[in-house]
Structures are given as structure tokens and as C-alpha cells.
Amino acid sequence: MKRLTPLLTLLSGAVTAAVLFTMSAQASPPRTQPTGENAPPAVAAPPQDEADVDDEAPVDDEQPDPEDSRQPGVSPPDEPEESPDGVDVSSVEQNWIGQLENGATIAITVSGGKAEAYVCDGRSMEVWLSGTVRDGKIELTGKDAKLTGIIRGDSASGEMIVGVRRWKFTARPDSETVDEAETKSGAGTDPAIYRATDEVRKAGIDGGWIMLPDGTQIGIVTWNGKPIPAPPLDPAFNSTVVNGVTIVAEPVIPGAR
């Protein structure tokens, strides 16, 4: 019996240890993955500063600039050129009178962007031209003739070509014959060029006159195909007499021919 006592004591200790282990396992909850019910609450991200917002993000409420609505590569229409006084240069009536380098006199009359010109030496040479004067550029043509030039301030210059011959020219505004205020407004400009009427030309007689700023005239009358110096026109009737025949002239108006 004494031999069994240590054995019983050992068995009793083993049973006690097993009971304690079982109770400890039941007391600890099993480890599980967090679910929606037992997951830790989410932490909200801190609000972004306005300075952190992407600068390149599009803004819906921004209105397009009307100037940017033009198609790429398409230039806006040209605005009418104006003088410092606010007058449309293309519509101003203006006369330009000067000389070619060969000594001939040139007169250019401009109205509404259209122009007529007459060149003569008062003896045998004369040329009639018509065309445009826009944005300071002179472009006129005539029979076997072409005249081009440019206007800068109160001076016009360029070149006239007749056949194979060419001459440079310079001209200035014919402002001495009218009041300065009228010249700026384009009103009251006296005609600088006169030509025989259609009725006279149908009779085989032609004639042209340039009214110079000093009150004198220079011109040519073509009689039966032969050019001769033109007698001055009577300012009261715009007429003169050649070989006993009365020749009536009229002002040359740009665009009328």
C-alpha cells in the first residue's frame, strides 16, 4: 500500500494539470479575422488644402473668351485705316500733284479708295490711269502703263512704267487750294484733273488738264490723233477753243469711268 502512494500522487497531479489546461483554453477567445461588426473604425483622411488642388484641373464654370473663339490661323478682318482725327482714309477725297523724273506733271485724285491719274508734259506725252489707293498703297493701270507707289504722311512716291520706259515720281497733297479744315474732312476739295466730255471725244477730239496749286494749268489736246499743248480752260464754263472749235471739259471723278 505504501508503494502505491507515490503513484497515486503522480496520477492526481497529472489529472489536476489536465483540468487546469482545459479551463485555461476555454477562458481565452479564439483568434479570428476582423469583420464588419468587430473591425476597428475607419480613420477619415484629413481634408485637402486648396493649395493642394491640381492647378490644371478644368473649371466648369469658366466662360470662354470671345476673342479665343476664332478658328486657328484665321486673322480678324482688317479694320478701316483711320487718320489721327478719326477719319476713314479710304473715304477722304484728296488730290496729289507732283512730277516724274523726266519733268512731266502727275496728278492723282482719290475718293473712297478709288483713284484716277493723269500724267502729261504739256507738249506731246500724256497717260491716263485708274485704280485704287488703299492702306497707303497706290496701284493704277492704263494703256500699256502701270503706276505703283506708297503714301507716307504728306508725301507720295513711286514709279510709272510705260512699255519699256520707267520713271520715278514724287507728289504732295494739293491742299493749298482749299481750307485746312475742309481738307481734313475731305469736303470742298477742288477738282485737280479735267477731261474732255464724252460728246467731244466722240467727235474725235480729246483733252486733259491738270489744275496746279498756283492757279496755272497744264494739259494736252489731241486733235485728229495729234497731241498739241492745251489752251487753259475758262473756269466759268470749263471750256476752251481750239482751231475755232469749243471744247468742253468736266472733272475726273474716281470710279466714274
TrEMBL record:
Listed Polar residues bias regions: 26-36
Biased composition, Low complexity: where in the chain?
39-48
Q: Which domain of life does the UniProt lineage start with? A: Bacteria
Instruction: Outline the segment boundaries, as ranges, of region: Disordered.
Output: 26-89
Cytoplasm recorded as keyword: no
Q: Which UniProt keywords apply?
A: Signal
What segments bear the compositional bias annotation Acidic residues? 49-66
Q: Where is the signal peptide?
A: 1-27
Q: Coiled-coil intervals in this record?
A: none
Q: What is this protein called?
A: Secreted protein
To which species is this protein native? Micromonospora maris
